[in-house]
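Bumping with the actual sequence this time:
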Amino acid sequence: MIQRNRWQRFTYWVGNTLDLISGSCVIGFGAIMSVESSTYEKWPAAFATSIAWLQKYSLLIWAALGTAAIIGWFLRRQGDPWIWDKLQALLDEFQAVAYPGFQHHIKDHHRVTLFKYKKWYWCLRTPMTNGRWPWRRGRYPWSGWLVPMLRSGRTSQNTRAVFLVPDNGGEAEGVAGRAWASNCVIVVDKLPAISAQSSRRKIKQYAEGTYCPEPIIKDYLERSRPLPRSIGAIPIEVDNKAWGILVLDSRDEQGVTSDLVANFTLTIKFIGQMLEKAK
């Protein structure tokens, strides 16, 4: 499930809380550690005993505070949920504007999906696994992947669509992978309409047109998942560094065109600027 939800909000709140508490405790505990025994022994017994106990177990306390800070950082590393909510709204609006001729169609027939590049990806179930061991030569967790982060609309959120983007750009998978490897906009349209009953030649033609291995295409067809007939992939930069890919796909053979993509240059830049704040 790629859509942001209450759990992400909760973990971000917990991360912020741990960061605040651990930071405050570090300041207070540092002050306590600086107090000499000759000083606190003159204080009331309860204070003196407490300070002596804290100083005795100082290493454990420092370790606990450090652990809390690390956990807080980890929980907050996906970014502020408010920013992701705004990005979701932006993708929904982008979808409505990008596909004006399909306003009354089912929304997930004409989608906008945001993929992020991740050097490591541990998912055990991808279209290439087909129930088998997911990793093989050239397809390791550390090979480099484009992973879905957000998708327009409310449906079609449960997806296994990830794309291999290894150091060897010629092995990058999908239109998204090709856009990542070339660092330029890629648009393919007028793809053949295929189904599980289509001939092997037609399936191969679709796979070659989308830069995908045939097993990926066959996996989608075996699960009765309709495939898009036009796809556009646009590189996204954050802080002048490659961040990921924005993918537009449509079940109409001319739903995504080069002219369509060219009209949204400013929108793409704005998405990149918002992602700067989501870090």
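The tokens above came from a reply further down the thread. Residues 40 and 48 are 5 Å apart (CA to CA).
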